[in-house]
Amino acid sequence: MRVMSFDGSAPARAPRRGRIVLEGRALRKVYRMGEVDVVALDGTDIVLVEGELVVLLGASGGGKSTLLNILGGLDAPTSGELFYR
C-alpha cells in the first residue's frame, strides 16, 4: 500500500511491482470563481501500478476529489499530462 499526502509532506513510498496503469505528471487544476482563481491541484504527480492499493489522505478542500475526477476522466486538468497504460 502507498499513501499519497495532500498536506505538503512527502508521501510514503513502497516498492513498485507490476506495470504502470495510470500516470499523472504535474497535474494542475484551477477553477475560476468570479474574479478569483482557486487552485485545487498544483503540480501533482501520481503513478498507479497494477494490483497496488492507494489511499488518498488530506484535509477538506485539499484536492482529493479533483484528482480522482481527473484520473477517472470526468474532468480535464488545466495543465499537466495524464497517461493510461
Task: Give the arrangement of secondary structure elements.
Layout: E1 2-5, E2 20-33, E3 36-49, E4 54-57, H1 64-71, E5 79-84
Parallel strand pairs: 1-4
Antiparallel strand pairs: 2-3, 2-5
Describe this protein's structure.
The chain is mainly beta. The protein has one helix at residues 64-71, and strands at residues 2-5, 20-33, 36-49, 54-57, 79-84. It is elongated.
Brief descriptors of the model:
single chain; 85 residues; mainly beta; three-stranded antiparallel beta sheet
Write down the Rg.
13 Å
Cα separation of the termini = 20 Å
Mean pLDDT: 86
Helix and strand string, N-terminal first?
Answer: EEEEHE
Main sheet: strand order: 3-2-5
The largest pleated sheet is described as: 3 strands, antiparallel
**Care to count the β-strands?**
5
Strand coverage percent: over 45%
Q: Per the principal axes of the C-alpha atoms, what is the gross shape?
A: elongated
